[in-house]
């Protein structure tokens, strides 16, 4: 992609998906909706295609990508699944769960996808458009969020266009994403223990510590960097009212210029989080304040994203 021309947005119907799949097969990159956020997809087995993702996003090479698959047979060609891993897929796939598993030595993925690690992050999405794109492309797809690196994640096609216009080949538009938060990422260790690397729409109370910032400092999956999802303005959390120079994002009884959920519903808040941050970033006010969100259930994932946005 030359970066000289505007990126076209097309409806994610059969014709649009077929066109996007042709671009992917030929080594291009396209933005595509999932149930979580819009992803920037390229064939995972082609180094030049994956390099286009890193270049378009300005993404550091030590940050691995999630590989999206359509079937368990396809997943089995990439990763080693022990009993614990298979149990998780039976419970949560297709859906917003990414598993970090031992990579098969002959896995057909370019080294940049796994950032040189011997593990691979893999997900079977639930969104019919993403699943159709994988099938028609004929290979697993590497697909981080479709935004510039460290910026607010996109939940609409217009969010994608705001930071990647002219940098990618096509945007498939299927309306807003339903979950609004990136997938939960869980590493399944050889002893069967589960370790949550990134909280998300699937909340697990059991199985290992919540350790997105691990003592080793090793980045095993997306979303582990301390500063991420930045709106480009200072962000103050746990705010009950706005200061004169702040755009307040409310929640529950705390009203604001906008609200994640006036009724205090965490599902609604997750779905609205990035849209609210995009709106706050576009406002004339130089700072952003966010009302307290309960740190339980889905609130753990919401607060994780807010802390990184504020870092």
Instruction: Write down the domain tally.
Output: 2
Order of helices and strands: EHEEHEHHEHEHEHEEEEEEHEH
CATH architecture of the largest domain: Alpha-Beta Complex
Q: Kindly state the percentage of residues in helix.
A: 25-40%
Estimated structural class:
alpha/beta
Strand content: 15-25%
Spatial gap, N to C terminus: 32 Å
Look at the structure and name the CATH superfamily of the largest domain.
DHBP synthase
| Number of DSSP E strands | 14
Low-confidence stretches at least 5 residues in length (pLDDT < 50)? 206-217
Task: Write down the CATH class of the largest domain.
Answer: Alpha Beta
Alpha plus pi helix count: 9
User: Any idea what the shape is?
Assistant: globular
Placed side by side, the strands forming the largest sheet appear as 1-8-2-3-7-4-6-5-9-10
Q: C-alpha Rg, in Å?
A: 19 Å
Largest sheet: 10 strands, mixed
Concise summary:
Helices cover 29% and strands 18% of the residues. The protein has 311 residues and is an alpha/beta fold. It has two domains: 9-198, Alpha-Beta Complex (DHBP synthase); 235-310, no CATH class.
Word description of this protein:
By secondary structure, this protein is of the alpha/beta class. The protein has two domains: 9-198, DHBP synthase; 235-310, no CATH class. The protein contains nine helices and 14 strands. The two termini are 32 Å apart. The model is unreliable at 206-217 (pLDDT under 50).
Write the layout of secondary structure elements.
Elements: E1 9-11, H1 14-25, E2 30-33, E3 38-43, H2 47-57, E4 66-68, H3 72-76, H4 83-92, E5 97-102, H5 111-114, E6 119-123, H6 128-137, E7 141-142, H7 157-164, E8 170-173, E9 184-188, E10 194-198, E11 235-236, E12 246-250, E13 258-259, H8 266-282, E14 287-290, H9 298-310
Helix pairs in contact: 1-6, 8-9
């Amino acid at each position: 992609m030359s970066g000289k021309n505007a990126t076209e947005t097309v409806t994610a119907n059969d014709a649009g998906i077929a066109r996007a799949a042709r671009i992917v097969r030929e080594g291009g990159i396209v933005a595509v909706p999932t149930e979580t956020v819009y992803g920037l997809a390229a064939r995972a087995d082609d180094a030049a295609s994956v390099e286009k993702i890193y270049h378009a996003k300005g993404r550091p090479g030590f940050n691995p990508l999630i590989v999206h698959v359509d079937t368990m047979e396809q997943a089995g060609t990439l990763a080693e699944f022990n009993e614990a891993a298979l149990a998780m897929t039976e419970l949560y796939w297709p859906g917003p769960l990414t598993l970090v598993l031992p990579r098969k030595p002959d896995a057909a993925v370019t080294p940049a996808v796994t950032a040189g690690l011997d593990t691979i992050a893999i997900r079977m999405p639930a969104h019919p458009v993403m699943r159709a794109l994988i099938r028609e492309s004929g290979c697993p797809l590497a697909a981080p969020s479709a935004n510039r690196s460290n910026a607010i994640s996109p939940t609409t096609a217009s969010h994608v266009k705001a930071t990647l216009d002219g940098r990618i080949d096509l945007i498939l538009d299927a309306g807003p994403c339903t979950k609004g938060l990136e997938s939960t990422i869980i590493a399944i260790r050889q002893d069967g223990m589960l370790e949550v690397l990134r909280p998300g729409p699937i909340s697990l109370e059991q199985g290992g510590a919540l350790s997105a910032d691990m003592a080793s400092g090793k980045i095993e999956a997306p979303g582990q960097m301390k500063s991420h999802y930045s709106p480009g303005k200072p962000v103050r959390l746990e705010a009950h009212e706005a200061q004169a120079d702040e755009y307040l994002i409310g929640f529950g009884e705390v009203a604001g210029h906008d609200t994640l959920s006036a009724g205090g519903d965490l599902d609604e808040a997750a779905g609205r989080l990035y849209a609210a941050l995009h709106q706050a970033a576009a406002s004339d006010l130089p700072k952003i304040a966010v009302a307290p969100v309960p740190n339980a259930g889905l609130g753990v994932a919401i607060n994780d994203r807010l802390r990184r946005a504020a870092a």
